[in-house]
Amino acid sequence: MKKLHLLAIPIIVGIVVGMFLVVYPQSEEDTKLLTSSRLIDDGSPILGDPNAPITILEWGDYQCTFCYKFHQNTLDTIIEDHIKTGKVKLVFKDFPLNGPDSILAAEAAYCADDQEKYWQYHNELYKNWGGERTGWVTRESLEKFATTVNLNLDEFNKCLDSHKYQNRVNTLYEFGKEVGIDATPSFLVFNDHKIIKIRGNQPLEVFLKTIDEL
Question: What are the TM regions of this chain, as residue ranges (predicted)?
Fold first, then answer.
């Protein structure tokens, strides 16, 4: 897979309060670190056509307020208009800023992935979002969500109780910091030539302009 060449270009998306768009600076170190394979590997299963020319890499936390709002307000349109049409694919990587409960929820999603139901479980977590550090993520609630998406509970509980994926989640968090992620949600939108970072739950128009730019 081609390395990503990071080109600085101006982006104009109108006047949007709180908008943060960053084109990564070009440097030899960045070029080696930010290859498409490194950005995609070890994240969620790909949502969409694996051969789609543009990738949206979302860095999120299951307790994060603005991650929840992105999933409620923006993601469905991107899925319908860009992912289902083969233009874009989506990968989710965990950046658990809100403590142990966020890490445990992320582990649970990968345990669901063992039964090929990552995205069903991922969506169930956001469907049942209950705020940041409010205690809604518990061992019992995670098992309830597993029941809702028809997981084999014995396998799910064995996976979660053994913390099979704790190291994976922590490694993703460290990699996120290494590539400049410092808030959730954050997005790296890229093709084989360019990476654009979107920081925060920006309006749909920001994502559409970014996709058009690529």
Answer: 6-24
Specify the pTM.
0.87
**For residues 199 and 70, is the Cβ–Cβ distance under 8 A?**
no
Residues 168-196: pLDDT tens digits?
A: 999 999 999 999 999 999 999 999 889 99
The residue among 173, 156, 165, 179 whose CA lies nearest residue 99 is 173
Q: DSSP letters along the chain, please?
A: -PPPP-----------TT--EEEPPP-HHHHHH--HHHHHTTSSPPBS-TT-SEEEEEEE-TT-HHHHHHHHHTHHHHIIIIITTTSEEEEEEE---S-HHHHHHHHHHHHHHTTT-HHHHHHHHHHT---SSSS---HHHHHHHHHHTT--HHHHHHHHHTTTTHHHHHHHHHHHHHTT--SSSEEEEE-SS-EEEEESS--HHHHHHHHHH-
The architecture (CATH level 2) of 21-213 comes to 3-Layer(aba) Sandwich (3.40)
Q: Quick check: 53 and 213 in contact, CB under 8 A?
A: no
